[in-house]
Amino acid sequence: MAAAEQRTNRHSAAPSTQVYWDSAAETYDHDFTETLIGQTRREAVWRKLDRSFHPGQRVLELNCGTGVDALHLAERGVRVIACDISRRMVELARERAGASRFDAVVDFRVLPTEQIAALSSEGPFDGVFSNFAGLNCVEDLGAVARDLQHLLRRGAPVLLCMLGRFVPWEIMWFLAHGRPRRAFERLGRGSVRPVDGGILRVRYPTVNQIARAFEPGFRLRRWTGLGVTVPPSYMEHWARRFPDVTRVFASADRGLGMLPILRSMADSVLLEFEHCGIVRAGA
């Protein structure tokens, strides 16, 4: 494991990104995982994961955070190699696994997404997934796709959950609070977060841009919107005030998130790709 954590490839990950997530790790579960809104988001993703990955398979997780998703799959008999750029996130994930009876099924690694080619000797994997905003912090999605081509078996599912681009909930919320720049942040070139020693860039590509970045090695089979009616996580106090309404919204999301226009208005999008096989340079 130590060797895999130290190896690097042609890509590099910004140190400030690691600093940001190391700091965020301390309150991540409180700020998102344990929130009502966070639970509705994660349950929606789990329904897709449970249909895509099966007992006995071995899958790769990118941006694993504190290990909640990896352990969910482990409970179902799926073996997971789970990676994250943040050493602190991985420490917390290992602690969570150690407190469970599934720690032998999950292997947590400190490994940035930009360096996943270091796992080439451990493939092929039966699939890969990344939940929530981790891939929004990656500069070159095309490079990630090219690395994944060599890590997955042909036909393997790839599930990527990323932040959406046009979110009416967010626009209305921040306009109502007198923050027009923040309201339309996702529609621009992305956001910049100050971090000790640098900045963290968060990008908001469209579904078409993501799909093109993964062509031709991966085919987009379908995509779903998560959070069409359920608001973003920073509105948790509202969700806690109206929990029954939030649950009704979450139930409605299951249908609305599949409709062509409405799914484009979701806080997050879940894209389901299929690996088409390795595409050689110049082919």
Written overview of the protein:
There is one protein chain. This protein has 283 residues and is α/β, with parallel strands linked by helices. It contains 12 helices and 9 strands. The chain has helices at 2-6, 15-25, 28-33, 36-52, 68-75, 87-98, 141-149, 168-176, 180-183, 207-214, 236-241, 243-256; strands at residues 58-62, 79-84, 106-110, 128-130, 157-163, 191-195, 198-202, 218-226, 268-275. Strands 3-2-1-4-5-9-8 form a 7-stranded mixed β-sheet, sandwiched between helices. The protein has a two-stranded antiparallel sheet with strand order 6-7. Helix 7 (141-149) links the parallel strand 4 and strand 5. The radius of gyration is 18 Å and the shape is globular.
In a nutshell, what does this entry contain?
The protein is an alpha/beta fold and 283 residues long.
